[in-house]
Amino acid sequence: MIKGLLRCFTAYVKDDGVKRLIMKGNGSAFCAGGDIVAGVQSIYNESWKRGADMFRDIYSLIYIIATYIKPQVSLLTGIVMGGGAGVSLHGRFRVVTENTVFAMPETALGHFPDVGASYFLSRLPGFYGEYVALAGARLDGAEMLACGLATHFVPSNVVSLFFHSLEHFRLEIINNCFSKRTVEEIISSLIRQWRTQTVGECLQREYIMVCHVIRGEFSQDFFEGCRAILVDKDKMQRFK
């Protein structure tokens, strides 16, 4: 799917017939993230470089989305977690409903919130980003809008009407409507390094970190977390 999205975003930016991009899930959820179990198994069966290639593709897609010149709207219905957050929260417009559930649950797997989370979480008010990252806290649509992760809120009972109207609006009308609401960033007295970096710099650093994780150089916690949460499901992580 990642390679398919990479091809689409690369092709659409050069296609004058494509005026805007709309992303939504094929079902009740937007995206719960990638298949971590399959990814870990490929690392075990092949090598850590297989995982590195996978993360490179994901991070490349995220960077393209974050720097895309055409308007992109993501409808975040239902679950938005992990990789699903990565391919949506870096976009220009993030629309949530009362049914949206967002989280970055990587710490329970012995991993760290990646997919550019060091960029968007470090820009949340105060130390809210640290809380979301370390606790794996779940946020609903209203909370996402309040802290700045989402740009707009649409009740679920009018979502279909919203997108029907959006598909027929001219580009200048879309820009005019969406530009009326902005979320002001709150800068704390403690300046954190990631808060001042570009999304590209954050993704580069995360890629180096994730390669260390999947190589198991310093710890096997990620593999132990995947075993306890996703494979055996005993929820008895034995982190070291």
From TrEMBL:
Residue intervals of the Enoyl-CoA hydratase/isomerase domain: 1-168, 189-239
EC code: 3.1.2.4
Gene3D superfamilies given in the database record: 2-enoyl-CoA Hydratase, Chain A, domain 1
UniProt keyword list: Hydrolase
Catalysed reaction, written as an equation: 3-hydroxy-2-methylpropanoyl-CoA + H2O = 3-hydroxy-2-methylpropanoate + CoA + H(+)
Enzyme class: hydrolase
Parts forming coiled coils: none
Pfam families: ECH_2
GO biological process: L-valine catabolic process
InterPro entries on file: ClpP/crotonase-like_dom_sf, ECH_dom, HIBYL-CoA-H
Gene Ontology MF annotations: 3-hydroxyisobutyryl-CoA hydrolase activity
Pathway(s) annotated for this protein in UniProt: Amino-acid degradation; L-valine degradation
Role according to the record: Hydrolyzes 3-hydroxyisobutyryl-CoA (HIBYL-CoA), a saline catabolite. Has high activity toward isobutyryl-CoA. Could be an isobutyryl-CoA dehydrogenase that functions in valine catabolism.
Similarity remark: Belongs to the enoyl-CoA hydratase/isomerase family.
Stated name of the protein: 3-hydroxyisobutyryl-CoA hydrolase
Phylogenetic lineage: Eukaryota, Viridiplantae, Streptophyta, Embryophyta, Tracheophyta
Gene: At2g30660_0
